[in-house]
Write a structure and sequence with these properties.
The complex is a heterodimer of chains A (331) and B (247). By secondary structure, chain A is mainly alpha-helical. Chain A has one domain. Chain A contains 14 helices and four strands. In chain A, strand 2 and strand 3 form a beta hairpin. Chain B is an alpha/beta fold. Classes of the chains: A mainly alpha (331), B alpha/beta (247). The structure holds adenosine-5'-triphosphate and magnesium ion.
Chain lengths: 331, 247
């Protein structure tokens, strides 16, 4: 256990160092990709909370990214500061996510997937058709990048660090949430809602909370996405984005804290690495995901977890064996 | 004696089947009431009607004289009523200790308070005490899913006691538990009953367990009350012998 902790801390340190040092070596495009990873990881962390921890299937995370992105784009192009835009995105997505949680009180699993899928489609139609608000298919261009404490975040490098810092804050907050009694209640909700209810856990409120918080993080993701790409139209916010975010969570390992980071990295970076294969990258990605999920339905971190569990079980049974031996010698 | 629970005329039908048909009984403070009866006679369904998992078609359930029929299980639990289920119901991905903390945390403060409060909701010491009490000390940090069936069964029971309940309904706590563990379970139940004055209702097929633990026994047959009395009275009742004990 102790060794695992050290390995974890060291790899965490290395990853952070890389994320801070690497960008200085990267060009404009590399920074864009890395920023995209950080932004998508935030959205995936939100979905991981709803799906991975609380066990509520959602095919609507992309819609919340859209709501967040449009909130930010509309407000900042109307000269509101970015901070206000982010707060509005969070509040709006939290409220809409809470409402979307209600169906989850009645239906579960694939039925819930259908309900959230319908919501996803609805959101897309609003983005496309409500031209007075969203400018429809023409989109909103020149979404400004924010000014923070007097510093303009215009350059790709600065904006990258803003995304990274946001990811850091989200990571700390969600990590703390997961380890609080709420996190335990979310897991209980996922594993056995009936027993949870009989232990005094208000599963209704926790379900709604799981949806609301997860969706709010989708909003944060969107609010950063808009100034990152600097142009917003409805096309990115189709069901495809929701599926992509779902893929990130599942490939990384749903219910594992590090899952979304890994999943987002694979989903955002893999297409870049596989660029040389030209048109075949989607095919390769699809085959990779299928293979992975057949081999390990709990994702990449599921493999690691299995290995660690096997090791600790071995250790435990060895300890038990030696304990029995001493006991036998004594009696 | 004070009535903790009053069940009157509870009826539950599933389509054409009447699983529970007009069952009435009272549970007095501090007693251990056993419920026995053949498979499928409606014992678990009766529990589910009392505890809000199912809404009875007819009848009412009162706790301390207050009508709680159809109240949500989580609200009922916070009034000091807890239960176990017939099938094992622990949270396999949480550790033994976390299972226990979870079982008591919702009784502490408000939901917001729990978010900003302590990670163990102030229940760490209580959980460790319970772990010691049920002899699960060496397993505290293990995931519950990795425990043996009997150990999980003990944990399951321990979880029901975490919040210091006044009334506990146990659905076949001894099912699948070996003899030594059975004795220790019985001992634990007696101790909690004596020390904390908790009232128990226990469904059990193990006659020896019921007859030695319970102060009164209720016999159900085909969804109805067949007999009610002390273990000795029930054992001597010819109808009971015919319907249940005599095989
Ligand atoms: N959800 C349900 N839907 C339909 N019928 C049900 C349902 N639950 C129970 N029943 C029926 O109600 C009757 C009583 O079942 P119950 O589980 O209460 O019996 P039990 O006394 O607990 O039996 P056992 O000793 O085997 O646990 C059975 O005939 C069962 O088939
Ligand atoms: Mg039963």
């Amino acid at each position: 256990m102790n060794l695992d902790r050290i390995i974890l801390l060291v790899s965490l340190f290395v990853a952070t160092a890389v994320l801070i040092v690497l960008p200085f070596q990267l060009g404009r495009y590399g920074l864009y990709i890395l920023s995209m990873w950080a932004v998508m990881a935030i959205g995936a962390i939100g979905l991981n909370l709803t799906l991975g921890y609380a066990g509520q299937v959602s095919l609507a995370q992309g819609a919340f990214v859209g709501i967040g992105a449009y909130s930010a784009a509309i407000l900042t192009t109307n000269h509101w500061p970015m901070s206000v835009a982010v707060l509005v995105a969070i509040a709006l997505c939290f409220a809409v996510g809470w409402i979307l949680g209600y169906p989850a009180l009645r239906v579960q699993h694939h039925y819930l997937a259908f309900v959230t899928l319908a919501f996803s489609t609805l959101a897309y139609l609003v983005f496309r058709n409500e031209e007075w608000l969203t400018k429809g298919i023409y989109g909103i261009s020149d979404v400004p990048r924010p000014v923070l404490l007097g510093f303009k975040m215009q350059s790709p490098l600065r904006f990258y660090f803003l995304c990274l810092a946001s990811l850091g804050i989200v990571t700390l907050l969600v990590g703390w949430l997961i380890r609080s009694p709420w996190g335990r209640a979310f897991v209980a909700l996922r594993e056995n809602p009936i027993r949870a209810l009989s232990l005094g856990i208000d599963t209704r409120r926790y379900t709604l909370m799981a949806f609301a918080i997860g969706s709010a993080l989708g909003g944060v993701c969107g609010a950063l996405y808009a100034p990152l790409v600097e142009f917003i139209d409805p096309t990115p916010f189709t069901l495809g984005l929701s599926l992509n975010l779902l893929m990130m969570v599942i490939v990384g390992g749903a219910g594992f804290f590090a899952g979304p980071f890994l999943g987002a990295a694979i989903s955002v970076l893999l297409p870049e690495w596989l660029r040389f294969t030209e048109g075949y990258y989607l095919l390769i990605y699809a085959v990779f995901v299928m293979g992975l999920l057949i081999y390990s339905p709990t994702g990449l971190l599921g493999i690691l977890d299995k290995y660690l569990t096997a090791r600790s079980t071995k250790k435990a049974s060895a300890a038990r064996a030696s304990a029995t031996a001493t006991f036998g010698a004594q009696s | 004696m004070k009535k903790v629970l009053q069940v009157s005329g509870v009826t539950k039908r599933f389509g054409g089947i009447t699983a529970v048909g007009g069952v009435s009984f009272d549970v007095f403070e501090g007693e251990i009431l056993g419920i026995i009866g053949p498979n499928g006679c409606g014992k678990s369904t009766l529990f589910n009607c009392i505890l809000g998992q199912l809404m009875p078609n007819e009848g009412s359930v009162k706790l301390d004289g207050r009508d709680v029929t159809g109240m949500r299980p989580c609200d009922l639990n916070r009034l000091g009523v807890s239960r176990t289920f017939q099938l094992l119901q622990v949270f396999p991905q949480l550790t033994v200790r976390e299972n226990l903390i979870l079982s008591g945390q919702e009784h502490q403060g408000s939901m917001a308070g729990r978010l900003f409060g302590r990670r163990d909701a102030g229940l760490g010491a209580e959980a460790d005490k319970m772990i010691g009490f049920f002899n699960l000390g060496h397993l505290a940090g293990e995931k519950a899913g990795g425990l043996s069936y009997g150990q999980q069964k003990l944990l399951d029971a321990a979880m029901a006691f975490m919040a210091g309940p006044r009334l506990v309904l146990l659905d076949e706590p001894a099912g699948g538990v070996n003899l030594t563990m059975l004795e220790s379970l019985k001992e634990r139940l007696r101790a909690i009953n004596a020390e904390q004055g908790a009232t128990f209702v226990v469904i059990e097929h193990n006659m020896e367990f019921v007859m030695s633990l319970c102060t009164r026994v209720l016999v159900l047959a085909e969804g109805r009350v067949l007999a009610m009395g002390t273990p000795a009275e029930v054992r001597a009742n010819p109808e009971v012998v015919e319907a249940y004990l005599g095989h």
